[in-house]
Write a structure and sequence with these properties.
The complex is a heterodimer of chains A (392) and B (546). Helix content of chain A is 42%, strand content 15%. By secondary structure, chain A is an alpha+beta fold. Chain B is globular and about 70 Å long. The chains are: A alpha+beta (392), B mainly alpha (546).
Chain lengths: 392, 546
């Protein structure tokens, strides 16, 4: 048993050696700079605050650090003095005292008073942090495995909604072990956009498991809990880009669902809202439209790459517990409703999540794509209207 | 391997003449002797420490640089999950039970543990549980990957290994409860005449309180994971939102177990340190009574602070404030303990053999973990640090530099009594300094990563975090190597009986100053049977008279 452990450790060490060599070799490729609004290289403190709450948190943290350091130095100063002075090798003779009620009371009360002194400023911040009333803009952030959905519920931009996913190239770089760029793993396709100086209330919820919406520069971290809504808020005092990542273990792609918030001036924000509204109107698909098979497959390929390939893989083979789509009896089934129902409702307790948040057209396209890709040659096509009919 | 234990074999010591202890494998499988069972526990926990350590090194190897090098994220999550479960339930907890088995009967002057056969059963239950835990990796879909906290509803998505994992934890829980009953009954009913509760060694006191904590909270964990099981298979919806369940309720139940659990892992460590510091300061423990009260207050407070693990779930203001205040209160009894240890050292006559080094190292580094705990208790700051590497740094400062260091201190302190052989002081010192340095190299940079916002349980990270991760990985491999060194160069020689013969009182000066307690009243190595008739004690209940 002991030899096995040694061998195991030895093997790991060997690997680390290889990695070390590889790192040195690729040091140039790993060059990285600070990301404004995101982490700085070898940052050792909280992010520079951009909201009042984050400023308060930083102050509290510094305040605690100072008190703790003073106590630490005082207490261990005494201990190390004793260690150097009262050692047998210096001829120290042990004293006999081992009890003193007065001293005991004193050093029970002192820490008690110190913690009260610490709790007072913290209380103020807790109360301020939890006050989500009178928001100028309310946005719902929904955690999905593994992306964020944003819906503008109230305020300027009401009605807007989109999904924010990690840029695909980032995930590929990660897989290849060749990361690049200051915004590695933080770059998304559609950042959340908010106006500067406005109180933004974020309502969080989730579709499958618990996620957490975090932006360190705003001092915000709020779990997104399926079946429940929670809220938090921030008022950004600066324009710019700010980054965070999912902070609650949510499955295998946990590290790959970042948060990017773009803070714009009031005018830029209004312009963005207008543009986004037009874009959404143009993109909206009419579920009654009848599509040609090759258009559906072409559209489906894009939907597949954005939503399905992370688990089922580009070749449809799946991996481990993830079922293969290539040759899957559900996909090949004559009864198209079988696959439609899996996509709308999920399967295996949510291991395959429900995808009802996708549009009828997107679902129809991706089903058609899987039915006619790799070795699957069913020739079947699913029209958006069929998906719409199955939604109940 | 079994040499240590051959010292206790039948023909070495006079009073074993009439004893027909089974030999060979029967001695271990049918073991009812508290010393043999203690040894089994300790060897078991060290094995699990190595397995959990290998998983930790897999994690650190993957995180050595950004990008995925060795493992896919799914397997990575399995490593973090199983590292946590194995270390908590397989390494730290059984190691303290091993110490309890060896030392409690010796310290209270009892012939053995109260329920010798149940003692055997509670150890041997651990073996199938451990085999099951390790074999989870080879089940379809791999091991559970929901984190050691097993948060719903992620657990509802796991493969069949989740069910096996739940089963394994049930078995370990049953084993812990039986162990605790045994310890409570032994301490309350089997003390030698004259050893009143308030004369008991601190290690017995801390274990008595720990055993009550275990009995109180292990069933709570069992409830939480059973509800997970029925949600997975029997159509209930305790935690599944689709059926109207509440995922946050799981967290409340889990942490109602989980917070007392962390004190279960640290209170016996306080006990060991409270024995060692007075011995090497050649002074009595300062404020014995206040130490007992402080331990009890920590245990009681541990039941009302659980939701500080959940500040980011979004509690009402009053909830956050209550749990913040209650948590900060724990700093008070903990500070009292630290002050008492330092007052014990003050104007003592100290020497720094390895047990004392580990005890002082414990006080120093554990206190750092205590301070980061205080910072995390502040709800507004916790919002920044929750689920980041800061938390990882914090709990490794209290569980590795806390519990594990105290365990090492205990092995060096009582090892001579167990084996009859002195360890090599040089090797002990190498082990201590190596562990201390590599520990800090590994975990100190994690504070920075957490403050900078790197979330925990990430298989890959933005490149700005690279350097601190690389340093932590190097430190982790160093720390792992030091523990292999400890096994090969300290533990194995002692077990083989190689080394200087240990005197009966290795830590007592000729003038009688130093270690006190009944365990030093028996020869080294401790004979197979001790205190067969209740000893007659002096007034302080530290020595046998007549």
């Amino acid at each position: 048993m002991k030899t096995m452990n040694v061998l195991e450790v030895g093997r790991r060490l060997g690997r680390l050696g290889v990695t070390l060599g590889a790192t040195l070799a690729t040091q140039a490729a790993l060059a990285v700079g600070d990301l404004p609004g995101g982490p700085a290289v070898n940052q050792i403190d909280l992010h520079p605050p951009v909201t009042k709450i984050a400023t308060e948190q930083m102050w509290l943290h510094n305040f605690m650090m100072i008190i703790c350091l003073v106590i630490f130095v005082a207490v261990f100063g005494v201990m190390f003095y004793s260690i150097f002075k009262h050692r047998k090798s210096r001829g120290a003779v042990p004293a006999n005292f081992h009890e003193s009620v007065k001293v005991e009371i004193a050093w029970t009360l002192t820490p008690f008073i110190i913690v009260i002194f610490m709790a007072l400023p913290a209380t103020k911040v807790v109360v301020a942090m939890k006050d989500t009333t009178n928001a100028d803009l309310t946005i719902k952030a929904t955690g999905y495995q593994w992306k964020w959905g944003y819906d503008y519920i109230k305020g300027e931009g009401e009605g807007l909604g989109f999904v924010s996913t990690l840029d695909t190239a980032q995930r590929e770089m990660s897989n290849e072990g060749k990361p690049q760029g200051d915004n590695y793993l933080l770059k998304v396709d559609n950042p959340l956009v908010v106006p500067v100086g406005k109180k933004v209330r974020i309502i969080t919820t989730a579709n499958d498991v618990i996620h957490a919406w975090m932006v360190p520069a705003f001092g915000v971290k709020q779990d997104a809990i399926p079946g429940f809504v929670r809220d938090t808020w921030f008022r950004a005092e600066k324009t710019g880009d700010f980054y965070g990542q999912c902070a609650e273990l949510c499955g295998k792609e946990h590290a790959y669902m970042p948060i990017h918030v773009k803070v714009l001036s009031a005018a830029d924000y209004s312009a963005w809202v207008d543009g986004k509204k037009k874009e959404m109107a143009a993109k909206a698909d009419d579920p009654a439209k009848v599509w040609k098979q090759e258009d559906l497959v072409a559209r489906g390929e894009k939907v597949y790459a954005a939503n399905c390939a992370a688990c089922h893989k580009a070749d449809g083979k799946g991996a481990g517990p993830i079922k293969a789509l290539d040759g899957s009896p559900v996909v090949l089934n004559e009864d198209k409703l079988k696959q439609i129902s899996v996509l709308l409702n999920g399967q295996n307790n949510g291991a395959m999540p429900a995808w009802k948040q996708l549009s009828d057209t997107e679902l129809a396209a991706v089903i058609t794509y899987t039915k006619n890709s790799w070795s699957n040659k069913t020739g079947q096509g699913v029209q958006p209207a069929e998906v719409l009919a199955a939604r109940k | 391997m079994s040499a240590v234990l051959d010292h206790h074999g039948h023909d070495v010591h006079d009073h074993d003449h009439d004893h027909h202890a089974p030999s060979g494998w029967r001695r271990w499988v049918f073991a009812t002797n508290h010393k043999d069972i203690g040894t089994l526990y300790l060897l078991f926990s060290f094995t699990m420490l190595m397995i959990g350590g290998i998983l930790a090194l897999c994690i650190r190897a993957e995180l050595f640089q950004p990008g995925l090098q060795f493992f896919n994220p799914e397997l990575f999550n399995q490593f973090t999950t199983m590292h946590g479960l194995i270390m908590v339930f397989g390494a730290i907890m059984p190691a303290f039970v091993g110490f309890a088995n060896w030392m409690i009967p010796l310290q209270v002057g009892a012939a053995d543990m109260a329920f010798a056969r149940m003692n055997n059963f509670s150890f041997w239950l651990l073996i199938p549980a451990a085999i099951m835990l390790v074999s989870l990796f080879f089940m379809p879909g791999g091991a559970p990957a929901a984190g050691w906290t097993l948060y719903a509803p992620l657990t509802l998505q796991m493969g069949p290994s989740m069910d096996a994992g739940i089963f394994a934890m049930h078995i370990m829980g049953a084993s812990s409860i039986m162990g605790s009953i045994n310890i409570i009954v032994t301490i309350l009913n089997m003390r030698a005449p004259g050893m009143t509760l308030m004369k008991m060694p601190m290690f017995c006191w801390t274990w008595l309180i720990t055993a009550y904590l275990l009995i109180a909270v292990m069933p709570v964990l069992a409830g939480a994971i059973t509800m997970t099981l029925t949600d997975r298979h029997f159509g209930t919806s305790f935690f599944s939102p689709a059926g109207g369940g509440d995922p946050v309720m799981y967290q409340h139940i889990f942490w109602f177990f989980g917070h007392p659990e962390v004190y279960i892992m640290i209170l016996p460590a306080f006990g060991i340190v409270s024995q060692i510091v007075p011995a090497f300061s050649r002074k009595k423990l300062f404020g014995y009574a206040s130490m007992v009260y402080a331990t009890a207050s920590i245990a009681i407070l541990s039941f009302i602070v659980w939701a500080h693990h959940m500040f980011s779930t979004g509690m009402p203001v009053t909830g956050q404030l209550f749990f913040m205040y209650a948590t900060m209160l724990i700093a008070v009894p903990t500070a009292v303990k630290i002050f008492n240890w330092i007052a014990t050292m003050w104007r003592g006559s100290m020497t720094f053999e390895t047990p004392m080094l580990f005890a002082v190292g414990f006080i120093f580094v554990f206190t750092m973990g205590g301070f980061t705990g205080l910072i995390l208790a502040m709800a507004p700051v916790d919002i920044q640090l929750q689920d980041t590497y800061y938390v990882v740094a914090h709990f490794h400062y209290v569980l590795v530099a806390g519990s594990l260091y105290a365990l090492f201190a205990g092995v060096y302190y009582w090892g001579p009594k167990w084996t009859g052989v002195m360890y090599s002081e040089t090797r002990g010192k190498i082990h201590f300094w190596g562990s201390l340095i590599f520990f800090n190299v590994t975990f100190f940079p994690m504070h920075f990563l957490g403050l900078a916002g790197m979330p925990r349980r990430y298989a890959d990270y933005p490149m700005q975090f690279t350097d601190f991760n690389a340093i932590a990985s190097v430190g982790a491999f160093g720390f792992g190597l030091m523990q292999v060194y400890f096994f090969l160069f300290v533990v194995v020689p002692m077990m083989r009986g190689k080394g200087e013969k240990a005197p009966q009182r290795p830590w007592t000066d000729p003038d009688g100053k130093g270690a006190e307690g009944l365990e030093w009243e028996v020869p080294s190595p401790a004979p197979f049977h001790t205190f067969e008739t209740p000893p007659k004690l002096n007034a302080a209940a530290t020595k046998i008279i007549g």
